Each structure stands twice: as C-alpha cells, then as structure tokens.
C-alpha cells in the first residue's frame, strides 16, 4: 500500500534537552510520537500539535546508567525492587528491571494511511537465576508502538514462558494536580507508602499526599482527567495498575525531579506483577482521547 504523506517514521537525534538521544519520530495525521532507542522508551505523544499527553522531567538524564525520568519507561522483567523469588542469590540489581537503561534495536517499521507502527526489541542474557532457572537462554522482549490519528498503543511482549513482571510506567502530564481524577481504577489497593497494607476504599484517588498504590482489580479501560485532556487508557494482559505521585518530600529527594515537579505529572502504570507461574508476556496500554469531552 502506498504510504500516506501524513504517515511517516523518521530517525531523529535528540528530544527536548536530551539532545544526543537516538530516537524515532512517528507521525499519523496530526498525531506525533517520539520513541527513544535507549530504554525502548516512548517520550512524547501529541495527538495534536503542541499538546503533549506525556511528561518528561526537565532534569531527565540518559547517560551514566540513568533511566529516563518521564515518558513511558518499560519495567521488565521485574517491577520495583527485585523479588527474592526472581533473585534468590540477592545480587545487587536495579529498580524496575534491566531494560530501562539499555539500547534497543529496530525490528520492524510499517507506515500506512491508517497507522504508523514501530517495533523495537532487545535480547537479555543476564537474567537473575530465579528467571534463568526456568528458561536458560537469552530472552527477547519487544515493544510495538502503534500510532493512529486518534490513539497510541504500546504493546510489550516476550514469548518465552518466564517468571516475569512488567509495567508500562506512563507519566501523564497534568495541569492541576488537585483536580486530577482517575475513574475505573477500583477500590482495593496495596499501599506502598504503608508497607503494602491492603486497603479497601470507596473514595476516588486524589493527589494531596504521596501516592504509591498497586490497584489489584482495575477495569480494562480507565478514564484519566489530567486537567488538559480527558483520556481513555485501555489495558490488556495486566493484573494490576500502579498509580504514583511522589508529592512534596519524596519529589524533593529524587535527583532527576525538580522540587515542584510533583505538580506536573501522575503515573498510571499498566502492570503484570504476579509471580505465581511462568508465562509468556503480552501487556499493552492504549491511550486515546475521549473526543466528546475533549477540552480545548
Ligand atoms: O525512581 P524509579 O525507579 O523510576 O521509580 C519510580 C516509582 O515507580 C513506581 O511507580 C513505584 O511504584 C514507585 O515506588 C517508584 O518510586
């Protein structure tokens, strides 16, 4: 099929202040996405010019082993501090897995009039023994980013039946933190601020304190009002959704966040966290605007 002049994929260098970062730019109609090869990391999603749905920290770095703060980090094959189930030898291993700080390669590019799609992949051979005992060869992880005129889908997959966790750790830009609303997230969560206490609460999540929650029964489609956008976040292959905002004191303690940056984002993270059995991974998050309620 002859590609539409409005759909394209181009290699570009740099995004915002990360001027030497190798990236790809996807376009479809008015929509635009930037994907970094470092981390296999979506950095920007503009459904229309000038309106970024995602947020990247002005202090984000990518050299010296830093994961990029913002966008959509890929957490794999564990989430948060590594579990001793995956890491029985208790090696010193980074938060959120191994692939946020590695270079990925381009596997496939597809450009049509209806969508633009880029697949990145990475091969990981140095899995800790709790994963490698189940599957000793290198594991292949791929991220397929599909942009249409109306939505962005990120699909993370690993066909090996591994004991594996994963998350698409999206940082959404917000304009008024106190008005941010997440609908469909459910009423039960493990509160990481309270040592993983299980809480059941019928009131909606609000962001007036540090929030770090693993929601255990979220709906397949969440609705996020960021103040600027009303977004539908569709999830597949997940067992949890993590909601995070560091608020004042935790934000001040994080080196690659400015002190007031907690006001600028909330994370809504589509996650698979179970460690009960080894299985292939197919996790996706699709971000679309609720057109009927879109704010100008
Ligand atoms: O600082 P990072 O390793 O990027 O993690 C940032 C945050 O990610 C998730 O939201 C976790 O639930 C939080 O506990 C963690 O603080």
From TrEMBL:
Keywords: Isomerase. InterPro entries: Aldose_1/G6P_1-epimerase, G6P_1-epimerase, Gal_mutarotase_sf_dom, GH-type_carb-bd. It holds the Pfam family Aldose_epim. Its EC number is 5.1.3.15. It comes from the Bacteria. The keyword Isomerase applies. Signal peptide: none annotated. Transmembrane segments: none annotated. CDD domains: D-hex-6-P-epi_like (cd09020). It catalyses: alpha-D-glucose 6-phosphate = beta-D-glucose 6-phosphate. Belongs to the glucose-6-phosphate 1-epimerase family. This is Putative glucose-6-phosphate 1-epimerase. It comes from Alishewanella tabrizica. The lineage of its organism: Bacteria, Pseudomonadati, Pseudomonadota, Gammaproteobacteria, Alteromonadales.
């Amino acid at each position: 099929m002859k590609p539409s002049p409005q759909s394209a994929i181009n290699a570009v260098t740099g995004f915002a202040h990360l001027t030497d970062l190798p990236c790809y730019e996807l376009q479809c109609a008015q929509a635009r996405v930037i994907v970094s090869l470092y981390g296999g990391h979506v950095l920007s999603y503009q459904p229309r010019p000038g309106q970024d749905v995602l947020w990247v920290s002005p202090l984000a770095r990518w050299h010296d082993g830093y994961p990029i703060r913002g966008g959509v980090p890929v957490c794999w094959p564990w989430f948060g501090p590594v579990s001793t189930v995956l890491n029985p030898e208790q090696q010193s291993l980074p938060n959120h897995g191994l692939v946020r700080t590695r270079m990925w390669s381009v596997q496939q590019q597809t450009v049509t009039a209806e969508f633009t799609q880029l697949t990145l992949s990475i091969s990981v051979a140095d899995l800790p023994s709790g994963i490698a005992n189940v599957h000793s060869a290198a594991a292949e992880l791929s991220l397929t980013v599909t942009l249409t005129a109306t939505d962005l889908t990120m699909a993370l997959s690993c066909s090996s039946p591994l004991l594996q966790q994963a998350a698409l750790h999206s940082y959404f830009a917000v304009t008024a933190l106190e008005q941010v609303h997440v609908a469909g997230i459910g009423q039960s969560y493990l509160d990481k601020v309270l040592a993983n206490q299980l809480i059941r609460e019928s009131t909606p999540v609000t962001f007036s304190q540090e929030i770090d929650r693993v929601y255990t029964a979220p709906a397949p489609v969440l609705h996020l009002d960021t103040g600027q956008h009303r977004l539908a976040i569709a999830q597949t292959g997940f067992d949890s959704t993590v909601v995070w905002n560091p608020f004042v004191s935790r934000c001040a303690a994080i080196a690659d966040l400015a002190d007031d940056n907690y006001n600028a984002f909330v994370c809504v993270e589509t996650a698979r966290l179970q460690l009960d059995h080894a299985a292939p991974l197919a996790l996706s998050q699709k971000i679309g605007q609720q057109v009927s309620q879109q704010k100008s």
